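Quick question, first post here. What does this chain look like in 3D?
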Amino acid sequence: MPEWLVLTLAMAAACAVVVVITLVRHRRAADEDPSETPDVIEYMTMWIGVVYAIVLGLALAGVWEGRSAAQEHVRAEAVALHEISERVRVYPADVRDRIRDGVNAYVGHVVTTEWRAMADEGRVTDRGAGLLDRVRRDVTDYRPRTDFEAQAYQPLMDQVAAADQARDARAESTGETMPGVVWFGLISGAVVTIGMIFVLQIRRTSRELILAGLFSALIAFLLFLIWDFDAPYSRGVSASTDPFLRLFPGIGG
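> Answer (accepted):
Ran it through. Tokens below.
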């Protein structure tokens, strides 16, 4: 059974149970005085606002954590590549220059072509994977000739593996992360929460209209933040290429 159908049936069942119980209780207690009961509308409105505020807070915290993790993937990849460039100084000049040229070519591709592809298409490029493979081959194919070079070989391999792992993590976190069912809940909750204002029969005084407008604007602003953070490598507040540009100042962004 599809998830959307399960969700629809569950929501319909919950509404049906509440309506049936209310009707049955109303028939059995027809002689009750409604004036002696608490204001159910205000109580429900309060709790709807509280529950929706919790949901909004959890959603915002989740996408912010995803955005922070995406920036950490970029930083880890840049640091690993920088370590490769620095550690190959013990190798012969031709090997050292070839590896550094490969690293610079990869970084240049990431901060220009690949970053645009991540923002526009939500994916990394095959060219970037090929450039990183070239760096890996240049490092692994060289046979150390001295003990000093042999001691640097394994740390270099570790940094290559770290860069590859960070790239894979960056690729997995590219694109939107919030499921559609969560967006359905957030938007539906916003409609219900704002709609409760009209249930309370808001008057047209300037104070109440201003408060209602600010309340609606706040919910719209929080939903916009969630949408903006949902794609870690695009839109407004997104992860940046600063770690690459800081560690490789010669690469143009």
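The CA atoms of residues 142 and 182 lie 51 Å apart.
The chain has a mean pLDDT of 82.
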